Amino acid sequence: MFKRILRLTNYSNPNDSVLAASNAKRLGVAPRVSRVGLPADANAKAINVDCGEYFRTLNPRNATYFGNWTHSWHIGNRVFARDLAMTIEGAIDRYAIPTREKVNGQLSLKDARARASCRNGRSRTQSRRRRTGRTGAGRLGP
Question: Widest CA span of the chain, in angstroms?
Fold first, then answer.
C-alpha cells in the first residue's frame, strides 16, 4: 500500500468506546490504530493525529452525530472537517495544518479559532463583539 500513496493520515481517539469493544473481541492481540494511534515503527509516510484532547472539549448536546457519540463525533464537526479537507487537498505540509499542534512530540487535533482567541486574551464571543459592536442577537451594545 505505501508504494502507491504519498502519505497516510490516521486519526485516533482513545475515548472511542466502539473501538474499545472491538479491541476486546480481538483479545487485545492487535489494538485498533484508530483508538491507540500508530505503532512506533510505522512507515514514514504515515502520521497519527490524536483527537482525544479535542474530543474531550466537545459537548454531544451541541453536535451532529449518528449512533454512538464517541465513535461518530467527527460527523459534522467543523474542526475535523477542516483538517480532513486540508489533508485531502495536500497543499499544506501535514505538520503545518492549522488544525493541528505538536504536543509531546505527537500531532493533536485543535480548534485553531479557539486557540487564537485565547492567545489574544479574549474569548471568541468577546472578539466577535469587539469586531461587530454587537453584544448578542442583533442588539447593539457599548
Answer: 61
> What are 59's three cell numbers?
459537548
Q: How many domains does the chain have?
A: 1
Dist CA 124 CA 113 (whole Å)? 8
With contact defined as beta carbons under 8 Å apart, do 32 and 20 qualify? no
Residues 70-120 have pLDDT tens digits of: 889 999 899 999 999 999 999 999 999 999 999 988 999 999 887 555 555
pLDDT digits (tens, 9 = 90+) for 36-77: 667 888 889 889 999 999 999 999 998 888 888 888 999 989
Cα torsion 113, 83, 11, 103: sign: negative
The parent domain of residue 15 ranges over 8-131
